[in-house]
Amino acid sequence: MNKDFPEPKFIDLNFHQVEECEQFSRAEAFFELLNSRRTVREYSTKDVPFELIKTAIQTAGTAPSGANMQPWRFVVVADAEIKRQIREAAEKEEFESYHHRMSEKWLRRLAPLGTDEHKPFLEIAPYLIVVFRITSIVEEGETEPTYYSQESVGIAVGMLLAALHNAGLATLTHTPSPMKFLQEILGRPKNEVPFVLIPVGYPAENAKIPDIKRKPLDEIMEVI
Q: How confident is the model at residue 147, as a pLDDT?
């Protein structure tokens, strides 16, 4: 190893081993919890305690990342005017997608979800969490890329969704394309690329969701 490289430092692992019976009960309970998670497009205006948002983002920040560079930024939007701007810009891009960009096959896949270019949830949900992927950093005047940033941020977003659901909140992963408008509206630097936009809140009373199913285990797992 290069003598100028920092020396690795190690600490003891803090790992709590649980009894096998508890392992199974935890695993089953966690599955049941996340199996109840659904994408929600109809939100209540009921206030959400901000501490729940902070704790969920702290949880997402524990995700593993390439070279421990933690290439994520979570921008929380509560301001009504900024949410309005985001909705208008998103709906403009979505109109182009639904009417000009998407193929017939893509639109056929979306049809059971009942979605279109209208995105009122972007204004109704109490919070929007915009997740940015940091593509590079500057240290001592030199620019360095972040390593495996796409994979790292994807893992963190998965943990964020689980944490928010665990806190009793509803979410939606919204990815209007292109998403550069999020960079502009939120004043983020060029090295922060929008990854996903997540409305967060409580479901509206009598909220509806698509009648769709998840693939069974034997379709998503193979043991060799």
A: 98
Name the nearest CA neighbour of 43 among 166, 131, 169, 164: 169
Nearest Cα to Cα of residue 178 among 105, 117, 115, 96: 96
Q: Would 91 be classed as within a structural domain?
A: yes
Please check whether residue 213 lies inside any domain of the structure. Answer: no
**What's the domain range around 95?**
40-203
Residue 66 belongs to some domain of the structure: yes
Query: pLDDT tens for residues 136-189?
Result: 999 989 999 999 999 999 999 999 999 999 999 999 999 999 999 999 999 999
pTM of the model: 0.96
Determine, yes or no, domain membership for 131.
yes
